[in-house]
Write a structure and sequence with these properties.
Radius of gyration: 37 Å
Order of helices and strands: HEEEEEEEHHHHH
Signal peptide: 1-26
Keywords: Signal
Shape: elongated
Largest sheet: 4 strands, antiparallel
Number of domains: 2
Number of helices: 6
Protein name: CarboxypepD_reg-like domain-containing protein
Length: 221
């Protein structure tokens, strides 16, 4: 008799183990039983107080790494699955989360999401002006600046350093376009005639002499 009871308990435990294993495997294969139920979620995101559309509000599907943003009028449309959690967020408003019904019979779901303003109170800041202009100038001149910041400012304003940066750094898009436009304007200005040569330009000679005195033409080691 004890042997039969032991065998019966063993069979019950074995059946339960197989059932639990099948359930676990099924959940791993299909963690969302509604993954094949695609729903077109669309609607409008509006403010709760004035019923105005919220532009560029984020509509995120939690845990899926995808979403969309609303248009200028607060309208949006996105494909989701039954059972998905949708989070609406926008700067200045409290986040709102909804769940797509799992028993939805149609493949479309529309919402009008109202966003409540999120008020943030900052600590008070009191601004007091200096009593006189002379006191301001005195405090400004006597203000202590750390040596590292002062040295950085001195390097940034050094003339030789700025010339090296100008000659070494490539031109950005705006500088390249301006240079091209200046060349085209210069070509159109002297169209039909010989352009002047800089060898007879006194301003060009003055720039050359200044550059020669600075040592711009010295051979760099």
């Amino acid at each position: 008799m004890p042997m039969k009871r032991t065998l019966r308990y063993f069979l019950i435990i074995a059946v339960l183990g197989v059932s639990v294993h099948k359930t676990a495997v099924a959940q791993q294969i299909n963690p969302n039983p509604y993954r094949d139920s695609i729903v077109q979620l669309f609607g409008v995101v509006m403010t709760a107080d004035s019923l105005r559309g919220v532009p560029s509000a984020s509509v995120i599907v939690e845990g899926k790494g995808r979403g969309t943003i609303t248009s200028q009028d607060g309208v949006f449309s996105i494909a989701v699955l039954k059972g998905d959690r949708i989070t609406f967020s926008s700067i200045g408003f409290k986040d709102k989360t909804i769940v797509i019904p799992v028993d939805l019979k149609e493949n479309q779901y529309s919402v009008i999401q109202l966003m409540v303003s999120d008020t943030t109170y900052l600590p008070a800041t009191i601004l007091k002006p200096r009593p006189t202009r002379e006191q301001f100038e005195r405090d400004f001149v006597n203000n202590t600046v750390p040596d590292d910041l002062l040295e950085t400012a001195r390097k940034n304003t050094d003339e030789a350093q700025r010339r090296i940066l100008v000659n070494s750094l490539p031109a950005d898009g705006r500088e390249a376009v301006n240079f091209q436009l200046r060349q085209q304007a210069n070509k159109a200005y002297y169209s039909g005639q010989v352009p002047p040569m800089n060898i007879f330009n006194p301003a060009a000679w003055a720039d050359f002499i200044k550059a020669w005195k600075r040592g711009d033409f010295k051979r760099k080691k």
